[in-house]
């Protein structure tokens, strides 16, 4: 039976999580004009695109017991487990000092914290008239007050992209599949490339994270509002441009789109491990060589983590409660099958005895 999943979205999900790995790996390299420009270009749109897609794929989420349990099982539990795991890795392997474990999500666990609250907000914003406008206002104002607890600054700062995805329809997204949209997408990316070549002149890299208060960025409130509003527009255009260029065909890459959480949660150990090992110093002044090798290696790591053999093993760690539920269900089915087999054997034996006596 053919899969009912749209390959367009699975391709997009896998491409985006691969870019997450690439972006994080670039941080390990020494600073250079080329690296910094590529990093700013990527972060201007790829996380907004990830959040937009999250919103679109959350449209069916409701306040039901099954959905709430799924949210706890697949988001809250992995957050608790991997927040501790990555923190212990950074402390005992990297010699770092971390504070406020679980209260202040540590890289890259902020996304699970955000996903948890975005899902809870889904029924509120989905059918709300003017919900997108409200989300934009919340994002702009969040820079004044939002703090680090559970990374609420990012949750609110990136909220417009989530709500935009939540309110998008297949008919509207179909417009991105046209040839004209694809040509326009190339123009959008060229424009973003030019704008991010001088990011520090109008918005430093920190702005692209949507996590800092405006007062920390040393700008007036009016300038801060305009800067964040510009980034929201830029992120939206970049999101649409990305989706317009994502292939619609189904292939080996498509199947990996179901394993994006595994890639997201485990790649941090690889990237941090390379950083602790002094990977960035291997290339010396060979900036381009280091960039190419690191990018290709990051893509390879993402594909390896999403490959079926690796996914089958790591899925137990990402969804331990689900794995346990499946084991219990299998055990109950085996027990029920054994009971039915015993009853059938008993009936057969009784029938044979009756026939023997009759004969």
Give a verbal description of the structure:
The protein is mostly helical and 359 residues long. The protein contains 17 helices and no strands. The model has no long low-confidence stretch (mean pLDDT 89).
How is the main sheet built? Answer: none
* Structural class by helix and strand composition: mainly alpha
Strand tally is 0
- Could you name the ranges where pLDDT drops below 50 across 5 or more consecutive residues? none
Rounded to an integer in angstroms, the radius of gyration calculated over CA atoms is 25 Å
Count of alpha/pi helices: 17
Distance N to C terminus: 52 Å
Shape: globular
- What fraction, in percent, of the residue positions are helical? over 70%
Which whole number gives the mean pLDDT? 89
Q: Beta-strand percentage?
A: under 5%
Q: Give the ordered list of helices and strands.
A: HHHHHHHHHHHHHHHHH
Features:
359 residues; mainly alpha; 17 helices; globular
Topology:
Blueprint: H1 7-26, H2 33-43, H3 46-56, H4 65-92, H5 110-126, H6 131-145, H7 152-157, H8 159-167, H9 170-174, H10 179-195, H11 199-202, H12 221-245, H13 252-255, H14 260-276, H15 287-306, H16 308-318, H17 320-358
Helix pairs in contact: 1-3, 1-14, 1-15, 3-8, 3-12, 4-5, 4-14, 5-8, 6-8, 6-12, 10-12, 14-15, 16-17
